[in-house]
Structure formats: C-alpha cells, structure tokens
Design brief:
binds 2-acetamido-2-deoxy-beta-D-glucopyranose, 37 strands, alpha+beta, 3 domains, Immunoglobulin-like
Length: about 700
C-alpha cells in the first residue's frame, strides 16, 4: 500500500511541462457484475463453482481516442473484468452501438473488446457449445448484463470526449508472475531463450491519459499474468488481481468516490498470459509442501493434492503501476484494421518451400487436466502424449475424431473433436478475428486467445519489425491485448513446441501450426496498415443466439423462509464495539441475489453506514464493491412443501485500521420471489439493518493519559 501511494504521488508530482493536447480522449466505466448467486463461474470450468456473493464488482472500462485533426477518426479499447471476450457479446454490442451512434462510428473495425481473464466472474455468455458445458448452457441475464454494460461504458466515454494527451511508458515488475509450464518453455530454442532474462514477460506497458489541463483522466496497462490469485474454491465474484489493481488505482485517484463511480479510469488489461501464473511460490504438494513433479504437476503420481500458494496481496502490490514522469510522447495518428480468419484452413510455410495447414478445432487430453492454478476434475494429468483407452472409448462413443483430424492435430492426442461436432450447435469456432489499433507509434494487436510467453514475444517482434521496415518510427511499440477481438474462446499456444503437451498445447485448438497462422495474418495486416491499404474482411462468424440452450432458469425454484421470520431479518447481529482492524459479521435471512441482478447494476446489496455524532442522517461509506466488504450467499434449506429455497446472506466488513471512530451499521438490500397459492409470482423488495455498533481507533488517542 505504502509503495503504491509513494509511486503515485511521485507520479502526479512528476507531471511536468504541459504539452498541447494531441488527441480527443473520453473514458467510461460501467458495472458488469452478473448474477451473484447460483451461476457457474467462467475460468476453471469446475463443476459446482457457482457464484455466491461479491468481493469486488466487475467493470467494463472504455477509452475512446480520436484524432485532433479529425474527431471522427477514432478508436476504442474496452477492458472488461470477465473471463474473455465473446463473439456473441461483441456482435450484440455492435448492433446496439449502431442504433445509438449510426453505422460508422463504432464498429468491429475500430473497437477492441478485451477480457482481463478473471476466473471469478459468472459465465454463460459464450456462443459455442463447448463453453456451455461447464456453465450448463447459455445464461441470459449474465449475457445481457455484460452486453449492456459494455455499451454503456462506450456511451459514457463517447460523451466524455475532450482534448487531452497520451503518454507511453513501460517498466519491469519483478516477483509478480511465474511460468506455470516451465518444462514446455525450455523446449523453445536455446538461442531464442538466451535473448530473454526470464521465462515470462516482466514488462508492464502503460498508456497514460491526461486532459487539456494536464489532469489525469485514465490509464491502460498491459501485463502478462493470469488473474488466478483467487483459486477454484472461491465463490465470490471478483476481478482478481487485475480487478484489485484497478480498484486501488481508481480509489486513490478518485478520492471520496464509491468504487466504479469516479471519473479516473484504470484498466489493467490482459496480454500474453497463456502460461503465466500469479502464484509465485509455484505448485506444491499439500502433504509435504514440496514442489510437485514439473512435467505432470502431480505429487507421487497422484493428481489432486496440489496447492498453489496465493499471494493476492503481494501480486497486487506488484501490479500497482508506476506512473513515472519520463513518459515518451506519442504523435497524433490513429489507425485500425480488423479481419475475420477461418483458422481451420490457413496455409503456412513451415520451412522454405514446405507448406502445412491448420486444422479444424480439437482439444487434447492435457486440457482436461487443467493447470496448477486449478486442476481439472477428472483423472487426467498434464504432459499426456498418448491416448488413454478408457477415455477414448467414452469419447469415441459420442464423437469419434476423424483420422484426418487426428493426423492434422498430431502430435497432440485428440480428446474432443470439437471441430467435427455440430450437435446441438458448433462446439468451437473456426472463424476468429484479429485486430490492430494504432495510436501514434503505439500499436495494439487484438489477439484472439491466450498467447504464451514466447509466442507473444514472437508475434510482437515480427509485427514491430514489419511496421518499422515499412516506414513506422524506430521506437514503435507493439503490445498484445489478450483474449480480445471478439475472442470466442481461450486458445493457447506453445510456440514451436510440440513435445511437452501440457495444458497450453492441448488447448491450442487449430493444431501445431496455430501460431504460424496467426503470425502470418498479423504480418499481412501490419504490412497493410503501414502502406495505408485495406485488408480482406474475411468470412463472417455465425450468430448462434437463436440456437442457445438455456437450462439454468431461475424460475424453477422460489425463495422461502422459516415461519415467523421476514426477509431481511438479522440472524446474527454485530457486537457493540469493534477496534479498527477487527471484522464485523452480520447474517441476514435473504432472497436469491439472482432475482434482481439487473436492478442491482450500479447499485449494491449491502452498505456500511456511518451515523454522525450530531444525529444527522446516516452516510453510506462502503458498498459491496469495496475490497474491505464481502457478502457471501448460500442456500440453507430446501422446503419440500413449497419447493422454495431458504437462503442466508453473510456480510463481513474487515474494518480498515484508518477507519474514523464512530457509530456504524450494516444494511442488506434484496429481493425475494415466492410463488403464491394461485401460482403467480410475488416479488418482495426487502431490507434489513444490523444494530448500530461503535468502531474505536486501534491506536491509543494522543490525549489519553498514561495512568
Ligand atoms: C484456495 O483459497 C482458499 C482461500 O485463500 C484457501 O483456504 C484454500 O486452501 C485454497 N485451496 C487450494 C487448493 O489452494
Ligand atoms: C472454414 O474452413 C473449413 C476447412 O476448410 C471449411 O470446412 C469451412 O467451411 C470454413 N468455414 C467458413 C465459414 O468458411
Ligand atoms: C486413473 O486412470 C488410470 C488409467 O490411466 C487408472 O489406472 C486409475 O485407476 C485411474 N484413477 C482413478 C482415481 O480413477
Ligand atoms: C422461466 O423464464 C423463462 C425465461 O426467463 C421463460 O421463458 C419461461 O416462460 C419461464 N417459465 C415459467 C414457468 O415461468
């Protein structure tokens, strides 16, 4: 915390001589926290990991940047606290933007939507069947909240447009990420590895934005690390390490504002994080604490007893960015390119004269093993290079991979022939998209998927080289915006590595030439951009909205409560007095938080209120979006008679040491839905409040005499 404040103060003080504004800039932030109860989380694909409360709210952070000399030439970057961008979400966002702003203002060509890759948000918003397995189908309310929130963030940024300047900086952050498949990394050529100090990227890339008066209005940072500081036993919605970094930065820059309500917007976006873990102590065995087997990530041959040491706080400290004063100036020019690519069928030259093709999508065995950040649920281990008879017999019974697909995907053993299954609709995409945005000499590649460390480096380098060779400035900076474009899915690449077949390789769905195919298309795009030429638009992806199966319907059950109680009743109350630093816990009889998820966007299920000593009305000091508050929600009982579910909501406030002493209370706002005798649905908005409690200072007040 201290380090962060110091960096920040140095930064703001460091803003020196004002330059003339070189862009129009607008920022917008909007709530995309999906249903906080009963929704499978997107990330670990762990059955039973459902949302059950909120730690941090999720946000879409949008930046519109326009040229000074032509305000209609603009580009938009949106970073969202979500698992990944989604083709269907993006299509719907563009159709809404068209209604709001006309056909040409914000389109697939000039907007990049990127997911931070938090593993602690609700799922159900992707259109391909494979991603609906863990989320039990499509989830309409989850989807709508994300679409509407992204559109709203762009609308806010649009109306915020004003003259400003953009600065670029970069720096190394050590002790904040490790390679989670180091045995795969070392299979990259020695000469290539020798050019780097680390087996992960340690660089944080930063764009800083100030208005015409040189007042800070926002930053976007890119850093390669998985937001998996929260593990797969977590049920609280959270932006994880990146969401926390955004929260901290925005709280410091927007004093007195509730989270998500301030003007200054800080996005911590994803990059080539495919093989990068935040769990810096490495994967260890539960019983011995020893590091587990490097290749298979098992302990004594057994798969499960692994823990990754969680360093949420230290990771976040490391992610807190430097906002230094030696930024370089980027000249004013905006450009963008977008292309759909049929990745099932790209021809690449693997060596001079030797051609090869990418394959229809398929997942390998090691994919099902998961990673050390979140092991899979079945009996798979990483490093699986051969088919397993038991599993292949099951899979063959459902959807046997064709011989052609097996040959194309080799050496990856095919577990799921996702490109060959179309029941009930496509399992994985063939049509994906790639994008490039240019702001001055800063170029962002919107990469569809999770590039690994080395594949990201190769892509950045070859794009930069192509641009510079074709007339871009020598100091052109290329960053990789991960899980973006209209990225339908996580896809990871293992560079040229064929042998190790850990999770990343198994999830490289278009076969061994996946990376070469992306590089080829990005290089062509970079050439086109540097020559001012257009690129081929490519084939449109399908819109599968009508086909989606929605299975997790809320209205199958209703809320219930014990007789003689009311929704909002306090089941466990606060004590009378707390010393700052202690935690208050209050439990309420509650309804299902999914009932009013949409109404609660921009709102809060809980508040901490301060009661002024002079008797004035209470003032809200915390919401459910604060780091120091959490609420967890769980079903406690199913009523056989009414078929309703009783549930409890537990609020915890970890009172910060610097909390002003005084009287406080905690309130929960909710909605309950019950079915009436005649079958209709009755909706009850309720609230409940704890008793008022005192918070006293942790430090002895200065005037206390020493008796
Ligand atoms: C997951 O995180 C929780 C909370 O930090 C911790 O209690 C638990 O042991 C972790 N589980 C594993 C498998 O690391
Ligand atoms: C993508 O390529 C595959 C393989 O050639 C082909 O079967 C498929 O029809 C193509 N899809 C589209 C939409 O062009
Ligand atoms: C895991 O799979 C192997 C075969 O590869 C089998 O021998 C073993 O019994 C399985 N273990 C469990 C726990 O299912
Ligand atoms: C449940 O909700 C879905 C969608 O929200 C709706 O189509 C369906 O008719 C509802 N079912 C009942 C029994 O109310």
């Amino acid at each position: 915390m201290v380090a962060f404040v110091l960096l920040l103060l140095a930064a703001v003080a460091g803003l020196s001589a004002a330059e003339d504004p070189n862009y129009y800039i607008g920022t917008g932030i909007y709530d995309i926290t999906g249903p906080a109860g009963g929704i499978p989380m997107m990330g670990y694909a762990k059955p039973g990991q459902l949302t059950g409360g909120i730690h941090l709210r999720l946000f879409a952070r949008a930046y519109v940047v326009a040229e000074m000399r032509n305000i209609n030439r603009r580009t938009v970057f949106v970073s969202c606290d979500m698992g990944m961008a989604s083709q269907l979400v993006t299509m719907k966002v563009f159709s809404k933007l068209k209604t709001l702003f006309g056909a040409d203002m914000y389109t697939k060509d000039n907007v990049v939507i990127s997911g931070t890759h938090t593993h602690s948000g609700p799922g159900g918003y992707l259109q391909y069947a494979m991603y609906g397995i863990s989320t039990i189908g499509f989830i309409r309310d989850s989807f709508d909240i994300i679409v509407d929130g992204i559109v709203e963030s762009i609308r806010l940024a649009h109306h915020d447009l004003r003259p400003g300047s953009i600065y670029y900086n970069e720096g190394e952050l050590l002790l904040s990420n490790i390679n989670r498949s180091p045995t795969s990394y070392v299979l990259n050529p020695k000469s290539e590895r020798a050019r780097y100090n680390y087996d992960v990227d340690k660089t944080m890339w930063i764009l800083k934005m100030v208005d015409g008066a040189d007042d800070p209005i926002g930053i976007i940072t890119w850093f390669a690390v998985h937001p998996t500081s929260m593990n797969n036993s977590n049920h609280l919605i959270s932006g994880d390490n990146k969401g926390y970094a955004s929260y901290l930065f925005e709280q410091k820059m927007n004093p007195g504002k509730m989270p998500g309500k301030g003007k200054f917007t800080a996005a911590f976006a994803s990059s080539n994080l495919g093989d990068v873990s935040p769990n810096t102590a490495g994967p260890r065995c539960l019983d011995t604490g020893e590091l587990c087997d490097l290749l298979t990530s098992t302990c004594n041959g057994k798969h499960n007893p692994i823990f990754s040491v969680h360093r949420m706080d230290s990771n976040c400290v490391a992610l807190w960015t430097r906002w230094a004063d030696d930024d370089s100036w980027t000249p004013a020019s905006i450009d963008f390119r977008h292309q759909f690519v049929n990745m099932s069928n790209v021809e690449v030259e693997v060596s001079p004269g030797e051609m090869a093709r990418t394959c229809a999508p398929a997942m390998g065995y090691s994919f099902a093993a998961g990673t050390t950040d979140g092991p899979g649920s079945f009996n798979f281990t990483q490093g699986t290079t051969e088919e397993n008879e038991f599993w292949s017999s099951i899979v063959d019974a459902i959807a046997p991979p064709s011989e052609q697909l097996k040959a194309c995907q080799a050496p990856k053993p095919v577990l799921l022939a996702t490109g060959e299954i179309s029941f009930p609709y496509a399992w994985q995409p063939s049509i994906v998209e790639i994008q490039m945005l240019r702001i001055g000499q800063f170029v962002s590649d919107g990469s569809p998927g999770e590039f690994t460390t080395m594949s990201g480096r190769r892509l950045r380098e070859s794009v930069a080289k192509t641009l510079v060779n074709n007339g871009f400035p020598e100091d052109t900076k290329v960053v990789l915006a991960g899980l973006s474009g209209t990225t339908p899915v996580p896809r990871r690449f293992e560079g040229s590595i064929r042998g190790a077949q850990r999770y990343e390789a198994a999830s490289t769905i278009f076969g061994p030439h996946t990376l070469s195919a992306y590089m080829k298309n990005f290089i062509l795009m970079a050439e086109a951009m540097s020559k001012g030429e257009a690129v081929d638009q490519g084939p449109n992806p399908p819109d599968l909205e009508e086909n989606q199966l929605e299975l997790l319907l809320l209205n199958r059950t209703h809320d219930s409560k014990p007789v003689n109680t009311n929704y909002g009743d306090v089941l466990e109350d606060a004590s009378d007095t707390y010393i700052a630093g202690e935690s208050v816990v209050v439990k309420f009889q509650s309804g299902h938080p999914r009932n009013n998820a949409k109404d609660m966007i921009g709102g809060t299920y809980i508040t901490v209120d301060n009661h002024p000593a002079n008797g004035g009305s209470p003032v809200t000091v915390k919401t459910d979006a604060h780091w120091d508050t959490t609420f967890s929600w769980k079903v406690t009982k199913r009523d056989i008679l009414t078929r309703g579910k009783q549930s409890e909501l537990t609020v915890t406030w970890n009172i910060p040491i610097d909390t002003p002493p005084g009287a406080y209370s905690i309130t929960h706002y909710g909605q309950a839905r019950t079915s009436s005798i005649i079958g209709g649905e009755v909706t009850i908005d309720y609230q409940g409040t704890s008793k008022t409690f005192q918070v006293v200072s942790a430090r002895r007040p200065a005037h206390t005499s020493n008796l």
